[in-house]
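Bug #77: duplicate submission created two jobs. Keeping one. Sequence:
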Amino acid sequence: MDVTRSVASPSEDIKKAAIFEKDALLSAQTMIYDDGEMKKTLPSDVYERFKQALVDGGATSDEDQEAISKALYAWARERGATDYAHWFFPMRGGSGATGGMLGALKCDAFIDLDWSSDAANKPFKALFPAGRLYTGETDGSSFPNGGLRATHTAAAFTSWDRSSPCFVYDKVLRIPCAFVTHYGRAIDDKTPLLRSQDAVAREGLRLLKACGVEKEASTMYAYLGWEQEFFVVSAELYKKRPDLVNAGRTLFGRLPPRHQSGDLNYFGATPGPVEDLLIAVQTEMMRMGSPMVGAVWKSTARA
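Kept job's structure:
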């Protein structure tokens, strides 16, 4: 018997039912503005120029920026988005549970003042200016650590990584961004990867041409397959462990019997609440276009 499920409140059961009764495949990729959505919603010439810019790094014209922002705004509103946010991963130095891969958002509503009005207090209207899709400004004085820059150089800037599709989550259009100082120095985890990709593409093409292979190639793409093991800990038990709360890792305790060589550590029965969590995560990730290839857990049956 799943004790956790038996004591759950009716509202929690209703929320779970709403999630788990949906077919994850039917809603897959419905919340991501990927290549297919761009092709459907943009004028063909704008779409082709945008695709070419991803290859050669060319700038997007003001006219094309307007067309893309209007299409993206309409698409996001159809999915219930009322806000947008530049989404980035500032350098946090791996500072445990409150840092590491924890992302950051600068969230704004899809509104702006109506400057055509003669009123002293301008009314606002719903819109999404093109400039706000591509760039943003925020405070970067604390990254990668506080006190490294003078006050007048504390500003930081976000810029949409055009190779990363926007997506809607929790009624917010999230725009994947690079995060740099006013000098262009990287203070995030994404910018070094993008610059490394540029270097790999540039030098890789030189190598191919020197070897007489794929001489007509115009760019190169690097693909990274990652695997991540993780542990699920109940919130109640987690709060009782100061090492987990403050450092995000185990600092005291004892090793399990035979370390982790015992067969009970693999393909054991998964507790019901953990399986519910994994199903919910898989459903949400598939909606946002993350395929979670190999998204299986080592389990034989529910506990």
